[in-house]
Sequence to fold (59 residues):
Amino acid sequence: MDIQEKIKKTFEKAAKPLRTGELAELAGIDKKEAEKAIKKMKEAGSIYSPKRCYYDIKK
Fold:
């Protein structure tokens, strides 16, 4: 499973917006890797930021 899939599954389980650090901890990945993946996913439009420093998947 790649990092983006782990992130997506973590958001689905959390069912709420998460900060990068929380997301990395819950997904069991490095924070820097999470930041890179979030940037790519945000550019692709699969996640968004409902408020500053928080991210969530588009439903």
